[in-house]
Design a protein that fits this description.
- This protein has twelve helices and 20 strands.
- The N terminus is likely disordered.
- The protein has an eight-stranded mixed beta sheet, with no helix packed on it.
- The protein is an alpha+beta fold.
- Helix content is about 30%, strand content about 15%.
Length: about 525
Amino acid sequence: ILAQASPAQVWGRDAMALVLASVVPVKDEPLPANGPAGVDDTPSDGSKRKQAWDERHDALDCEAGSDKEHPAMPHYWYDRPLTVLMLALAVMDNAMAYATFFASNGVRDHMYTIVDAQLVLLPWLGPALISFACLGTTSFVALVVLVECCKMPYYHEIMNLRIYFSAIPCGCCCGIVVYFSEQSKPIAFAALMFSTLFAFAWCVHMRLRWSYQLNTCSRIVLDLSWFVAFGMGVFLAVLFCLDRMDIITKSSNLKCPYASNEQMPINLPMLGTWYCSPFDTSTPTILSRTPVVDAGTAALGGAPRQLLCSDTFVDIFGVSIEPHTIQCPVGCLLQYSGSGLVGCGVYSLDSPVCIAAIHAGALADEGGTVVVYGRLGLGHFQQCSRNSIQSEERRVTAFDSVRLTDADPVLPDGRRLAAVPPIVLSPDGIRVPQAFHFNNFPDSQEFVWLKSWEVLERDSMSSTRPWTRIEATVSARIAGLEITDEKIRLGRPDDQPTLFGESYCKLVDSGITCPGAAWIAVRLDFCLPDEGSCPS
């Protein structure tokens, strides 16, 4: 450039040459004669001009094939331990995501709490969590193959991809589980904490280790990320330890507190009791009612009620569907006249109780103690011969349809019934009397069978109580009331009355069935743990 200067710039060129000569090694060679014509480059003292720059003959750094070595990146003694720590946190984060998936996905076989119901209503959550967890596992495979085996410098790139496409999404999914489960799913909370811890540690590591290569925007983003991760982790840990996750979940607004049920709490309004039963497609739950302590039993200090061979159910217990413990004497077969026992397995109220116990096989002629169950009556009592006793037949009504109405729970003697039987009326106004049995025959044994459940479409009834969208298929036999594969929603919707009201039913061989009104006998409700719960 200086050699091609104009004549007016010669002086300035000479001055520049002197400056360059002071900082650049100068070769003792004449300047190339390629300046403009007419320009005299010869110094005034006749000496040779010194070249003030060195000609470049080396390849540029940006040219392909350049073998010029760059400065090595500094390495510190803590690089390898820090890498091991980051990998350990990533592995734990990924493993806890899998654990959360399996712990939450098991609600298909465990529909017994408000948490189970809430998670079932999020069908996409499980597939999303397992998909993101699999992406995290894929990143570990890529680290082994590309970084460890092929020695490619992609460690940070793979880990960055993993945190954005696996760790953070898995943390979000686990956070949703924690939101609905609160303290009931500690594995989900642990997974959320590991995701938060890994995000915090990775952002701090990138911020400190690679700060000299980051621009201002990247530094700000990393600072915000580790601060948010740290603050969120500490905040959630404090709430979890203090059992105050409801501050953010607002679960108290649902009015359905969590209870650690291992089976479904079942309320039987007709009996005034609660039972527990699992969902099982093959086996029903046999009900064994607890005998009541009536006035006669209380007078004996809770001992069984002593009966004579001729005592009938209605004479001793009146109109009752409650279970009672009785004591029968020895030798009732010799005292039996051969008539008066009506029914086969299910007996009329005016039948002698001890003779019926021998006929049903619940007792032998040597007497003993047994529990007798009151129940709703039959339209037709069958006759049969069992254990040397022939029973009698009786038809109560010729109609199949009956009407159930609420009865007064207070008896004329002032005693309040714990189990209030409905009044059963035939179309001609005839009251169908009650009966009793010993709960030992397959065709009269009391049971509850929760066969399956399914999620219904959202409606106005489930807007404030989402668990009522879950409908169970139930069969049952409770104190003579038959239910066969009826649909019952969880909880008690507002449009269902608390008692029988006016229910239209039918008489069948084993009792009374009320199609479409199964809720009068069975209610599945896990939102009342103070009244009924089924802990392990």
